Structures are given as C-alpha cells and as structure tokens.
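**Sequence with structure:**
===
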Amino acid sequence: MANYDYDVLYIGSGHGTFDGAIPLAARGKKVGVIESGLIGGTCPNRGCNAKITLDAPVALTRLTEKMQGIVNGSLVINWTANEKHKQEVIEGLPDMIGGLMKSVNIDIINGHGTFQDAHTVMVDGKAKTAENIVISTGQHPHRLDIPGTKLAHVSTDFMNLTHLPANITIIGAGYISLEFATIANAAGAKVTVITHGDKVLRKFYQPYVKQIVADLKSRGVDFVNNTEITDFEQDGHSFIVNYKGGQVKTNWILDATGREPNVDDIGLDKVGVSYSQKGIQVNDHLQTNVDNIYASGDVIDKEQPKLTPTAIFESTYLMHTFAGDTTAPIDYPTIPAVVFTSPRIAKVGVSVEDAKEQGFTTKENHLPNDWYRQVTKEKIGDNTLVYDKQNHLVGATEISDQAEDAINALLPAITFKLDPAQRERLVTLFPTIAADAWGSI
C-alpha cells in the first residue's frame, strides 16, 4: 500500500466537495482540499446565496404591489443598500465553511492544483499525493467569441454592482438572464434581453414560461429574439450591442450565455482523464476513466441538472463510497429545479411533455382560484401534476409566487412514489403553502 499524504484529495471546495468531505473526515479519513479562490466555490460566494439575497426585496415589492388598498404606499428598492446587504450575508461564508473543514482536520491547501500523475497534484510547486482524487472544479461563465467581448460583464459582476446602471442589456435565454432581468427591472433599470432563439428557459414548461415573459414585458422589459450578436462597441460612456437586424445602446452589458466546465489548466490531458466541452466523463460510480480519479458537481458531463442540490447529492454519495458504506452505483433521485423570477417557475420529475408521450395522466390547477393563494392576491399561478398508471404522483411543474416551496412540499410523494393511502398519512401544518400544495393533489 502506497504511503500517500491523503486518503482523498479534492480539487475545488464547493458543494461538490465540502458536503461530503466534512463527514468523511469526521469518520477518520485523511482529507485535503485544494482551492485557488474563496472557500465554498460558486454557490455561496457568487451564486445562489448572493442571488437570493438580491431578490428578496423584489419579492417584497411584488407582494406590496398586489396588496395595494390593504396596505398603502409603494416600495422602492435601494440598490446600493441591497448590494451591501448581500455582501453582509455572504462575506462570512468562506470562513464558516473553512472552519467546519478545519474542525474535522481537513487540510485546506491554497493555490491552483494541477495533476502531475494519477495520484499527485502539484500546488504552487509542491506535490500533494492521495489514494483517491476528486475533481470538483465547477464551471465558469461562458464568453461570446465576438469583437468587443471584453466590454461585457458576467454574473459575478452584476451581483457586485454597487450602483445600478440606468440601462442594462442582457444576452442569453437561461436562468441567469431571466432572474437578473427580473431583479434589475424591479430595481428601476431599463432592461433589454436578447436571445439567439425564439424561446427562453427552454427546459421549463413553455406555457408557464410565456406567462413569465408576458409579465416582464408588461413591466417594461424588452425582448429581442431570433438574432445573433455580432459585436459590442463603446460609444463614449455608453456601449452598443450590434446584432443581426439592429442594435441597442446601453449603459451596461451582461453576457449570460451559459456556463462552461473548469477543465482547462488542471492537467487532465497529462493523466489521460477523458473530458469534453460538456465536462468530465464519469461512469455510474462517478469515476473517470482513471479509476482512482473521480468527479463531482457541475464539472461533470451529465444529464442531471447542474445545480447545487445535485452536487450535494454527488458529494455525499462519494463520501459513502470512500467510507466503505457502499459499492453500489449512484442512484439519482428526482431533482427539482427553479427559476427565481417573480413569479417563480419550478419543476420536478416527469415533465408535462413526457407525460403525454408516456400516456400518463395530467391534472391542471389554476391557483388564483384557490382560497390560500387569494390571501396574498396572487394573479399569476398554475400547476400541472403528473400521475403514472398506478396513480402515483411522478411529476409536477408550477408557476406562482411560492412555486419553489410548493414543489419542495410535493417531493416526498414523487421521490418515494407514495400511493394514495400513504399520501393520506402525511398531515401537513395548516394553513401553509405545503398544505395547499398537498391539497392540489
């Protein structure tokens, strides 16, 4: 048995690492974590936590808007104070996560890690060896390959803006584009969204997506679809986005055209790990083609959504594998997804489109008809529930102000395929969104 520095060495410190590394080290394994940036990776520092903090005032303004006449007066978002509050929320997270790792004797190795061989990673000229190595390097924002691309900004820049530009142009049709368009518009910016195709949020149920877009348009967001960006140029203190068929003059450009896996400059070619532009290729044990090298989180090329909960599940699975609890392949549960627009759109399990192909039953509910949604005067709200031929709930998608919590409430029924008698055994607190969601079944 070789004498390695670590039983398991992780490259990257995000959710694909720390959710599993901490309990693994607590069970006596010698663990090291290499990180070149902030401990915790994207989600705590420049993703989920920051985004939801910036969005909280948006949800509040929407509620106040609907309740006018019961409460009087309108709210205005102070962007500078909002960004400052965001920073207050997230600034302690790296130390907190690092502290949890150090409390179980995980070595945190600061620097950029590059493979020397299958068991060795070089960090600033120093060799670190391990029996098993996990690549958990995540993703970074994609950049358009066009003239003037450096004039555009990425999602991290948006969340760090201390002053909101009066006019923002967003390129892209995914989560980041629609969420940040919602936030910027609610905070008073004039927003234009430019997309390559004719649809946004393509992986979500399009009849609900169209309601999101219609609401944003009613609030002044412009959409330019079915075009291609040709270049960005500077015009004094402003910028021009040129696209086929026209141009937009703006104060600030956000490139939200996707994210790419961090597979470059870590020595994958040197050790022969297989990867593509979609990420690192792994088997059903999260092993690469080099059997002691694994991958976890968004850097993997996979069908499952590249989301924080997926990374947490993978990291926890690897913990059980390295601890000797299991030799079974990873068995992914149903993984929910949500877009934090206002209203939200969320989904889990079998989609409406797939339900029709499989001959499953669907049930639609118009949520503003429900008394609980009338409490806060919800105007936009629908869900579609999917049942298999044994009447198990196997899928759900919803658009509403509380869609994320409603879908979370339905997860046990979908994940464990509870039959009607088992569903009756779950007694929810009342009146709550969970009770309302269960009532819709």
Notes: The first strand starts at residue 6 and ends at 11. The chain has 15 helices and 23 strands. The chain has a mean pLDDT of 97. The domain at 6-140+260-323 is CATH 3.50.50.60 (FAD/NAD(P)-binding domain).
